């Protein structure tokens, strides 16, 4: 597998001869997670599921930033503690992402649980004279890391003259950033330099190295984190260890709305809770994977409707496969193998989920065509279903499960309806169809039989 590395700006080979170690920057837990968070995390969820299906062991670490000015400010607004705020939104995070069928990380370290590790990390930087103490906290001296700007391709002199930097007269250089902030406002911890709390960037360096080692495989996050967060992580991590930090830097494009960045001030933020409640996990996942991960994607109801239509095609395909009962044999092995090869090749080539979905929907479309032409045989269906299930597992798509009891009940209802129609008791037959509709069961009429499918309930469709 080759992945575009933001640092080198080249496609790098991912070493899959051993366990693959991935660190993904998680959310700051002061508010509800939104569709932008969903896209980044879904992309990495599919990457992980693809590698795991190939038999590769994955260690996946995703942090929670649970101490931050935003959390403290929200706690003050709501007259509660920062811990209560972070606990609430961590719980909501898991509800959202479990609902999106995202596999849980190997570990979710929190900044507040790693203060000792962070302090030890800062002590090394101070001992190397790369960090210094001022009246406001401990700062990383950017001038001591000559390669600063290598991830974002920004030059130090240009940053000093142009970029927005927080003004702090205690800094030796306006670009220097806090690794420890002095404070008397809870939550605070004792340190060798004074009471306070860690800066934002230092937590990810300390935790990623603790769990994955000094040089791990992939460091990921949204493109908005390239500067300053990931730039600062590289500077402090490589200064501390003397080694290259992550082998591959993988960044996911932003979700925009009508071409604009989501912003609370504009009022265009779409929470996961909102979109999940209206569209369901499968439609959201298809939307998030529909463009190349590195490019921005624009959120719109129209795009979601398009993906809902595609999802209905997947459901039809699945139920045509499980109901297939004729003896046709179309010798589809080679064409199905090619589709799966195209699917895998797209993901192996810089994780192109857009092209992978094209291959996936080619399989869906071909299945539905064969079924409509009464040519889908049992043997064909078994081969196709095997590939379809593997692909849906990788993409994190879930067909609603039908129990044996439900299946028997539905089969009996359809049989009764057919008998009533034969007896020309159309009103009673229509009542059964209405009841089936209430159960989200849709009937598909074939030449000599009627089959059924269970559709996922989508609120926005009603």
Q: What is the CATH architecture annotation of the largest domain?
A: 3-Layer(aba) Sandwich
Number of helices in the DSSP assignment:
14
CATH topology of the largest domain: Rossmann fold
* Amino-to-carboxy terminus distance: 42 Å
Report the helical percentage. Answer: 40-55%
Q: Any idea what the CATH superfamily of the largest domain is called?
A: HUPs
Structural class based on helices, strands and sheet pairing: alpha/beta
Report the principal-axis shape: elongated
Overall CATH class of the largest domain: Alpha Beta
Task: Name the average pLDDT.
Answer: 94
Attribute tags:
Rossmann fold, 14 helices, Four Helix Bundle (Hemerythrin (Met), subunit A), four-stranded antiparallel β-sheet, 3 domains, 462 residues, alpha/beta, elongated
Description of the structure:
- By secondary structure, the chain is of the alpha/beta class.
- The chain has three domains: 251 residues, Rossmann fold (3-Layer(aba) Sandwich); 93 residues, Up-down Bundle (Four Helix Bundle (Hemerythrin (Met), subunit A)), CATH 1.20.120; 58 residues, no CATH class.
- The strands form five sheets. Strands 4-3-9-10 form a four-stranded parallel sheet, sandwiched between helices.
- Helix 6 packs across helix 7, helix 8 packs across helix 9 and helix 9 packs across helix 11.
- The two termini are 42 Å apart.
- The relative contact order is 0.11.
Secondary structure layout:
Layout: E1 2-5, E2 10-13, E3 20-24, H1 35-53, E4 58-62, H2 69-77, H3 82-99, H4 115-127, E5 131-133, E6 137-140, H5 156-162, E7 177-182, E8 196-198, H6 200-212, E9 218-222, H7 226-241, E10 248-252, E11 255-257, E12 260-261, H8 272-289, E13 297-299, H9 301-323, H10 333-348, H11 353-372, H12 378-395, H13 404-422, H14 426-438, E14 441-445, E15 450-454
Parallel strand pairs: 3-4, 3-9, 9-10, 11-13
Antiparallel strand pairs: 1-2, 5-6, 6-7, 7-8, 11-12, 14-15
